């Protein structure tokens, strides 16, 4: 091979890395898009993975059947890349039209939740399956082109193709997640992948013109390769199955250590693929020298199972490692970058040893079949069977293994599959019987030791170490644990100074807490849940039907049901295990499960509303924190536009969000998204860190009425948190839309959108940096007489006669005039410094210091 031809070979490897880069951008962005109507990141991730792998399997299989008829596989590859680029150009407008058709036309005529889910799956399949068929064809076509041009070392070439494609995929996951989405949004990221496809097509065309391709090697007779083909294709399928059992189980394990954010998922996926890439690279110089490659494959499978078992043994230590990391890092931009790097290291520690072994399996299987006379078709067939096994692994894990076996036993089941596969391959290659017996005995002893000698420490798993750096909660009593379809749900009791508190958590993050002891001090979450449940009937005592998005502890819905005038309350929760956990809050959630007016639906909220086409007097939304992957879509412009359609003309939206682990830009982005779709709103502070917004679809928000408090059950819920009158609730009011809209408009953050997800991209950093927007709450307690048309009239402070007080009043009023003038001007006419100066002056005055000025 001369130097010039040798350089062309490495150019093809580099180009195939770019192909992996664009392919994983597509997978990542499709997952973002599909979770917008599938409703949960875990569902979207698993479904996209199944369709993605399934389409690639079919595409690889079809390519393998046509390879022998193609004179130039590289030119066929060029055509595929062009078609992929065109699909990237038109995916966004097609998605917008297709989902509107699904939600507005198809689902409204469907009564069954099962039928609704099938329609959503079919729509997802139609949206991405054609492109996945094309992606599946790329590997066989590129491999066939390389092997025809450079036939000397087929094993090395196949290994390097696997490596380069996987390495590009790692770059695609990280660059799209951490750079492109934040810079250009989902549509722009797709266009970036499409541009890569077009560049690839041009570059491969130029390279192909300089290569002389040999005719394809003739395949051996079917009878002569049958003893190898079927068994090894079965091995490819089964090793794909076990690998994706690991992936799903590891992701569910690691979200308890790293958090369930979008960036955490991207770090985990890149770690998984990097292991596959490095395994393919390592085998490259060895694959052509194995005397019995099937035996080497058997040893690799045994090592895969052993490495997977090691992750069971080391899992508890990961919480200690993350605790040390959180204690060592400063809460700033540099610390956040190191947090992400450390999270990637943890994911690599878990995944790399096993996936390194997995990265050798496909090159080995493909090489064995190719060298035994199967021809180029072996490439596509092996790829297809492996991806079919991956689909089976995802579906088996999500729907059977995880719910019934739990995390630890699911991972051990995957390891058992690999060990059995390894023993089978050793037997098939006629390895000495004593060696086989020794392997079996050692394997049994290892599985027995790991099964009996290790356990996953639930008190570590519920610690939420990725938030506060506490690796275990020693003083807790576990009440309930379930690894559900989409998340791990826990209910536990802790003894605090206020008494015994029961908490329900999702993936280690507490979602709600309440005291179950009569006459004990209330937990900090209880006023929030009572406020969420009571605001609808305080503003509309005549309301008849309501919906609650998110079960949580069930207390909010329970408070809502305390009003005897309500005819029906629909509770929509996507995770069935959360509903089971809420039952453990006893009488605090009892009405949700016993009252005939209560109806629980396991479904995605947007799909549920579209299917039933009901219009509600009130919708209460209490999702998890927006930094959780998929949740920020419930705080977007598109969500508020759609949810307003399901409210009556005077209907109310009552929604919770937090100001802890947040900042002014994130809160402003949410409020900018909500404001255009509701004619009026008011903000209430439930405690020092939770905000509740009540918004009316049309008209002005009326004054709250005390009618509801005449009912004993309602009065009892109020008394539980220390309220007795409507005035107690009104004292929690921060302000109204008329002033707050201009206030939030000063932030540079755009309105949060599902296609330009500002909150999803920034919320994790705010969580890590422990930021907050306490100045928003401080406005409620301002000592200054802010204008009555903006705020409820505050009590006159006792120190109003102080000489400095009039100066503060003057500065505050001047700042308000500046803000009003700025808000009235065209955005391009407003200088950024002027906005900041006005806000700084207002907050410094109304909050009594410089904290507000610095925050903006």
Largest sheet: 8 strands, mixed
Radius of gyration: 30 Å
Mean pLDDT: 85
> Could you say which structural class the secondary elements and strand pairing correspond to?
alpha/beta
Q: Ranges with pLDDT <50 over ≥5 residues?
A: 784-806, 844-856
In percent terms, what proportion of residues is strand? 5-15%
Q: What does the model show?
A:
The structure is a single chain. The chain is of the alpha/beta class. 64% of the residues lie in helices and 10% in strands. It has 28 helices and 12 strands. The protein has helices spanning 3-38, 41-66, 73-106, 113-149, 154-208, 222-258, 262-283, 293-328, 333-374, 377-428, 433-453, 458-461, 465-468, 526-539, 555-560, 576-582, 590-594, 605-612, 637-644, 664-674, 712-720, 726-730, 737-745, 758-768, 774-778, 803-824, 832-846, 851-855; strands at 476-483, 488-496, 499-506, 509-515, 545-549, 568-573, 598-602, 616-621, 647-658, 680-685, 690-696, 733-736. The strands form 2 sheets. The chain has an 8-stranded mixed sheet. A hairpin with a 2-residue loop joins strand 3 and strand 4 (509-515). The longest helix has 55 residues, at 154-208. The chain is globular. The termini are far apart. Residues 784-806 and 844-856 have low confidence and may be disordered.
Keywords:
single chain, about 850 residues, alpha/beta, 8-stranded mixed sheet, 28 helices, 12 strands
What is the element layout, followed by pairings?
Layout: H1 3-38, H2 41-66, H3 73-106, H4 113-149, H5 154-208, H6 222-258, H7 262-283, H8 293-328, H9 333-374, H10 377-428, H11 433-453, H12 458-461, H13 465-468, E1 476-483, E2 488-496, E3 499-506, E4 509-515, H14 526-539, E5 545-549, H15 555-560, E6 568-573, H16 576-582, H17 590-594, E7 598-602, H18 605-612, E8 616-621, H19 637-644, E9 647-658, H20 664-674, E10 680-685, E11 690-696, H21 712-720, H22 726-730, E12 733-736, H23 737-745, H24 758-768, H25 774-778, H26 803-824, H27 832-846, H28 851-855
Helix pairs in contact: 1-2, 1-3, 1-4, 1-5, 2-4, 2-10, 3-4, 3-5, 4-5, 4-10, 5-7, 5-9, 6-7, 6-8, 6-9, 6-10, 7-9, 8-9, 8-10, 9-10, 10-11, 19-20, 26-27
């Amino acid at each position: 091979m001369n130097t010039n031809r040798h350089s062309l070979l490495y150019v093809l490897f580099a180009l195939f890395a770019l192909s992996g880069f664009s392919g994983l951008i597509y997978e990542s962005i499709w997952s973002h898009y599909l979770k917008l109507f599938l409703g949960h990141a875990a569902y979207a991730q698993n479904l996209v993975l199944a369709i993605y792998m399934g389409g690639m399997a079919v595409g690889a299989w079809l390519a393998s059947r046509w390879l022998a008829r193609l004179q130039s596989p590289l030119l066929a590859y060029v055509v595929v890349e062009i078609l992929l680029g065109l699909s990237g150009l038109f995916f966004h407008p097609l998605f917008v039209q297709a989902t509107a058709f699904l939600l507005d036309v198809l689902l409204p005529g469907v009564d069954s939740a099962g039928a609704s889910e099938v329609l959503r799956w079919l729509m997802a399949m139609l949206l991405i399956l054609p492109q996945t068929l094309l992606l599946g064809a790329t590997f066989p076509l590129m491999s066939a082109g390389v092997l025809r041009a450079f036939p000397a070392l087929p094993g090395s070439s196949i290994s390097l193709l696997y490596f380069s494609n996987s390495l590009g995929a790692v770059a695609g996951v990280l660059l799209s997640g951490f750079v492109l989405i934040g810079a250009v949004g989902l549509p722009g990221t797709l266009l970036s992948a499409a541009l890569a496809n077009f560049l690839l097509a041009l570059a491969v065309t130029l390279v192909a013109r300089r290569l002389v391709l040999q005719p394809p090697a003739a395949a051996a007779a079917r009878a002569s390769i049958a003893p190898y083909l079927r068994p090894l294709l079965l091995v490819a399928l089964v090793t794909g199955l076990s690998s994706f059992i690991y992936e799903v189980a590891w992701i569910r394990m690691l979200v308890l250590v790293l958090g369930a954010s979008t960036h955490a998922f991207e770090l985990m996926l890149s770690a998984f693929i990097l292991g596959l890439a490095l395994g393919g690279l390592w085998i490259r110089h060895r694959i052509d020298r194995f005397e019995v490659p099937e035996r080497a494959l058997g040893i690799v499978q045994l090592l895969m199972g052993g490495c997977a078992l090691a992750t069971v043994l080391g899992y508890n230590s990961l919480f200690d490692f993350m605790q040390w990391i959180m204690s060592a890092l400063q809460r700033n931009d540099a610390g956040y970058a190191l947090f992400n790097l450390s999270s990637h290291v943890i994911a690599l520690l878990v995944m790399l040893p096993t996936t390194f072994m997995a990265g050798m399996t496909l090159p080995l299987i493909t090489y064995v079949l190719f060298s035994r006379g199967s021809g180029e078709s072996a490439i596509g067939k092996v790829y297809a069977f492996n991806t079919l096994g991956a689909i089976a692994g995802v579906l088996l894990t999500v729907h059977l293994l995880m719910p019934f076996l739990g995390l630890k036993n699911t991972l051990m089941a995957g390891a058992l599959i690999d060990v059995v596969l390894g023993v089978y391959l050793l037997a098939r290659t006629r390895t000495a019987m004593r060696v086989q017996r020794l392997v079996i005995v050692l394997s049994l002893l290892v599985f027995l030791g790991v099964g009996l000698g290790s356990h996953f420490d639930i008190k570590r798993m519920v610690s939420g170490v990725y938030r506060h750096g506490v690796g275990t909660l020693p003083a807790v009593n576990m009440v309930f644990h379930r690894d559900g379809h989409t998340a791990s749900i826990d209910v536990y009791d802790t003894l605090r100074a206020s008494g015994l508190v029961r908490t329900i958590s999702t993936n280690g993050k507490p979602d709600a807490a309440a005291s179950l002891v009569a006459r004990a001090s209330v937990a900090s979450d209880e006023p929030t849940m009572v406020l969420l449940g009571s605001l609808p009937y305080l503003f509309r005592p005549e309301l008849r039907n309501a919906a609650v998005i998110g079960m949580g502890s069930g207390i909010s819905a329970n408070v809502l049901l305390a009003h005897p005038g309500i005819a029906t309350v629909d509770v929509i929760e996507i995770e069935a295990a959360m509903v089971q956990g809420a039952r453990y809050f006893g009488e605090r959630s009892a009405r949700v499960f016993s009252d005939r007016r209560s109806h629980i639906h396991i479904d995605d909220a947007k799909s549920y509303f579209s299917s039933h086409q009901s219009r509600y007097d009130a919708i209460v939304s209490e999702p998890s924190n927006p930094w959780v992957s998929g949740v920020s879509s419930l705080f977007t412009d598109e969500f508020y536009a759609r949810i307003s359609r399901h409210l009556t003309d005077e209907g109310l939206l009552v929604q919770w969000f937090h100001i802890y682990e947040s900042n002014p830009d994130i809160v402003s982005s949410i409020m900018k998204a909500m404001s255009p779709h509701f004619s009026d709103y008011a903000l209430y502070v439930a405690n020092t860190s939770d905000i509740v917004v009540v918004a009316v679809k049309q008209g002005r928000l009326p004054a709250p009425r005390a009618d509801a408090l005449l009912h004993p059950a309602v009065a009892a819920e109020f008394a539980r948190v220390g309220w007795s009158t409507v005035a107690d609730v009104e004292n929690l009011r921060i302000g109204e839309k008329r002033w707050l809209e201009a206030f939030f408009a000063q932030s540079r953050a755009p309105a949060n959108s599902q296609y330009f997800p500002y909150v999803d991209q920034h919320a994790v950093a705010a969580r890590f940096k422990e930021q907050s927007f306490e100045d928003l709450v401080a406005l409620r307690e301002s000592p200054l007489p802010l204008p009555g048309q903006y705020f409820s009239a505050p009590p006159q402070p006792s120190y109003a006669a102080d000489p400095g007080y009039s100066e503060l009043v003057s500065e505050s009023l001047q700042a308000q005039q500046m803000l009003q003038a700025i808000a009235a001007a065209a955005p391009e006419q407003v200088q950024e410094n002027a906005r900041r100066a006005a806000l700084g002056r207002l907050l410094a005055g109304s909050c009594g210091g410089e904290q507000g000025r610095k925050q903006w």
